[in-house]
Specification:
Blueprint lengths: L5 H6 L5 H26 L18 H10 L2 E3 L5 H18 L4 E2 L8 E5 L5 H5 L3 H5 L6 E8 L2 E8 L2 H16 L8 E4 L5 E5 L29 H12 L4 E3 L12 H14 L5 E6 L3 H4 L11 H17 L5 E4 L16 H12 L5 E5 L13 H6 L10 E6 L23 E6 L15 H9 L11 H5 L10 E5 L14 H13 L5 H12 L4 H20 L22 H7 L5 E2 L18 H6 L9 H4 L2 E2 L10 H24 L7 H33 L14 H7 L7
Parallel strand pairs: 1-2, 1-3, 3-5, 7-8, 7-14, 8-9, 9-10, 10-11, 11-12, 12-13, 13-14
Antiparallel strand pairs: 4-5, 4-6, 15-16
Bound molecules: beta-D-glucopyranuronic acid.
Length: 732
Amino acid sequence: MTMFPPKVSRVLKPGNSLFQLFRIALFVGLLICQLHVKSQNLCSEEDGYRMWLRYERVGDQQLLEKYRKQIQKISLNNDSPTMQVISDELSHGLSGLLGTDIERTLEVNSDGILILGTPENSSSIASLNLQGQLGSLGDEGFLIENKLLDGNEAIVIAANSDIGVLYGTFHFLRMLQTHRDLDEISVYSSPHCKLRLANHWDNIDRSVERGYAGLSLWEWSTLPNYKHPRYTDFARISASIGINGVAINNVNADTWFITDHFQEKITVLADIFRPYGIKVYISINYSSPVSLGDLNTADPLNSEVIAWWKKKTEDIYSRIPNLGGFLVKADSEGQPGPKTYGRDHAEGANMLAELLKPFGGVVIWRAFVYGERQADRVREAYDEFVPLDGRFMDNVVLQIKNGPLDFMPREPFSPLLGALPKTNTMIEFQVTQEYLGNGNHLVYKGGMFEETLDADTYARGKGSTVGKVLAGEVFDYNTSGMAAVINPGTDRNWTRHPFVQSSWYAFGRLAWDYKLSSEQLAEEWIRQTFSNDKEAIDIMKDLMQVSSEAGVNYREPLGLTHIGTGFHYGSAPWSNRSKRFHQADKEGIGYDRTKSGSNAAEQYHSPLSEVFNDIDRTPEMYLLWFHHVDWNHQMKSGRTLWGELVHKYYEGVESVRQMQADWKSLEGLIDQHRFLHVKSLLEIQEKDAVRWGNSCVLYFQTFAGKPIPQELEKPEHDLDYYKDLESEIYVP
Ligand code: BDP
């Protein structure tokens, strides 16, 4: 029997040169095929790179046909860099979603035209006389509506500025990606917060502080020459959820970032981001005049220091005319600041603000300050900044972490949010999972952000929620906002754990509109990132919603904090720092922040201060944050505190096991690549949850002196075993 048809086998006789040639060609061909398949696997479509901008073909045939009728032509004037970006994104998005290239037109003479623009750059939009509707939408808002133009049905995306049109475009693409109906669209949307920032804790050597997804995105050694395509994709991803500022370097700032050498590099990033409405902010080191400028002081009131910063500021703005401003961590965790020179934070910030003002720049001054002065670190930011209220210039914004301590898995909101009627304020969230399992655990933080934003500060009576404070609806701020430490990196999927993307997504959308629900955002994200299949959505959404409580429970339930190791990954309740915060002893556990203790509860407005002072009225999720509680204290469940605490740790583990089971049921409903990836990561999460929980239960048991409730399985090992594990090498 021959391998080839008769004619071919006559010519290709084994041994002859043609046969050899054929064999070589076949081998090379197979190799190429193999390599192709391999590279396809490596750069698989579903490697997470595209984030929520996947623009997959609409699978529902009926809906696809309908969309194709509704969007037959596009009318826009791409005469500015931003309009060009819009045009590119639409081509890319619509060809993916609808599977056809959409014709461009400037005439509206048939149905099915998508018209985009401002009254200035689009005669069609000008003819609609939308001034009334656009009036309240500001510089960044947009509207999307069905309109009749000369009897033709059209969908209009209009705004007062090109950037507004860009946000409208991304919203429209989101509608298509999430399979929304386009029949009666009436979207009027504008951001609640002026500043919506991604803070990167990136260092000059491309390491990322508390970053778990590879190296820094900014490839300093090839900038300014090489413009890595990731920079543009980063801008697209950010703008698509409304982020309008990027602080490019670590708050523990290296002075080098403001040298001429680095400015050239940063300028390239700023140029790439500009058409996307994104401004660059630079974290500065307060002692730069000394370390870079040969001065022997960085005193903000010293004229030479002021002259040095003035020159520096002018230099930077000559290169980056739209620089957002400076982000400053001063007098905190060893960072230099005005206090070194006997000046306070207002004097320190105002010196820079004065210099940035002519350029429209702002100083974002961090409120994350603490030293050894006070016994209770949780009090410090409030005690430091409340007396300064009213002293900051109007282009200074105080950036306050969501909780008064750090980015613990759960904290009550910082009482500073609601205590500064005369100081522009923004919040700082953390997307990167510093205390929640780094890049290994699945913890959707949308619910946590929502919990903080919905918390009532009572600053101007009931209903003065944190969200409203940040939107400038409680106090009359001229600038306010939200920032998140996101810390994406060079990992192909940007965030290592694919679900860290979901917290990034939720943050951006909430910064735009704090009223959105975390549940809705989870669904939006799933639809765009994984699937529009109802079953898959339901499973994934449930799993995401329980994930944050699970993360809190196996790590720091009932208001415990700082139980972690020095790396902030595992649990180490026996460490000195942990002991300082949990204060476990024979009588009980928890930090007394009532009148009998540090009285941090007094920093909240009434009635919260009274509620937090009262052990019976304090919500149990904050119980050990505010009270040192007897091990026998009766909890709402009917258990003692000890019983409840142990149950919480076990609940955390059980939730992770449930998440594992739910995830397994997704097999076949989502792509195999990410299915297997997350499945493996959940195995790590389960193992960690058991270990972290057991470490705490066994350690706290040495104080409580009580047995682990009968119904719960006993830890596999003893306390010493878990203590020994702490010395394992930590691999981020
Ligand atoms: C802590 C981090 C530390 C940061 C600090 C900050 O562990 O790496 O430098 O916050 O926010 O949570 O400045």
